[in-house]
Request: fold
Amino acid sequence: MSELPRTRFGGTPGPRNTATPDHTASSTTPGRMGSTTPGRGGPGTPSRAGSTTPSRTPGGGGTTPGRGPLKSNIKQRSVLRTPGTPSNSDTPGRGTPRRTPSRRPAESLVFKEEVQKHNVHTLVFRSLKRTHDLFLYDQWAALPTPDDLKASRKSYKRQSEYASVKDMDAPVIAKKENVPKTPGNELVEVTTPKNSSTGEKISNALANANPNNNNKMITLASRRAALPKPQWHAPWKLMRVISGHLGWVRCVDVDHTNDWFVTGSADRTIKIWDLGSGTLKLSLTGHISTVRGVAVSDRHPYLFSCGEDKQVKCWDLEQNKVIRHYHGHLSAVYSLSIHPTLDVLCSVGRDSTCRVWDMRTKSCIHTLTGHTNTVSSVLTQATEPQIITASHDTTMRLWDIVAGKTRATLTNHKKSIRSVVLHPSQYTFASASADNIKQWKCPGGEFIQNLSGHNAILNTLALNQDGVLVSGADNGTIHFWDWKTGYNFQRVQSQVQPGSLDSEAGIFAMKFDKSGSRLITCETDKTIKIYKEDDTALEEPINWKPDLLRKKY
Reply:
């Protein structure tokens, strides 16, 4: 027989085993770690690693012949082990067998739990003891009250609740058996001698009244006493009707000498009237559209006018002609105001801007922007804020004339604002809208109060030195108010001139003369009406009930 080829590790392969291997019998099979067995390598063939180790097939002996035991190995691995089944560590396998930790008896666990409960129990009781020792003092007990504190409490309560009646005739505390017991008079047992009738009535009323209600009554009485009472003003009546314009009369202003006044109309003319007699003195033409604003200067012989033709004109009243034009507005100009101390003119209009002009150089100093709709009215004053504008966007703005920026924006109104007016002596002003009239305080624009009741579209406001505020509406109604309290003491319905429609009873502009005794109104029926106080009126008691719950906005 020829010599067989040598194996990789130097051995000679033996004859193939053609017999069916016995899976249960122990045989010598080379494992992966290499053991000496008659297999492919023949007897004496070393394994790959050259060491003798048991195979990883679990079972008896640890060695199986050939490849046959692989299926049984897989079957053995797929079997689920139960707690009673021995693990791989109990049989010869790979490596050193693993040691299963021994279970502790149940008695030791129970013992440990008991010890743990005992420890927590002890700690809880120790904590309770410490807490008890710490808060041994009863903190809910009332502190001892000194006698002087009790006396001060009584005096304060006596002063706050019975201040209005404690200084009357000296009351005598009645005996308990003489005063009938009722559910409301346990705390108030006061009576007076029989010779004091007034004190007796008040004391009995207090004795029979409920103390809670009594406190409320005294509080309301004190609040009413704190509110100012309205001053009596004589009623106003129509004095004169002046006709002459051929269109709606839209604006008016009075000269500082109080001799004449000027009006502008939709007939594109400016007319100057004598205040005493109501006769026409002069007519000025030059505008090509409705004249919406006029202003007479107190320091110059100038008259300023503006209109819907986008023009602002300066008239020289000595020559009765236009000497300056101020160009810059992009739409109709609705109102004018002359600064009382500076040579500055302010104009506002439908382009949502307020333009500040230098009278002499005709240059635009500032263009104050910020409003989002038509600016309907403008005011100027010598103190801050020097410029106040009102707009149809329901806001008012207080401007810094130096920086050309907004100082404050007042957003209390809910409807468009068409007019603002300054108080001649106080540091306040008022604004008119369709919702109500509001009073404000300068310089920050703090809200003072509402004047409600004139339910119409208010076009104009006027105010004199006596505190009479007048509001004119689109429907021809004129309301007279007391500035201090907001009391509406008179209402007048304007009468249209013969030949006019009732719908032409609108009030566009109003102005008091310099004395405050004449009120000039410009109306839709193309007339100018002058009102004055009724000299024959007698002072009457005022039936006025203050509104205790005033709105704060």
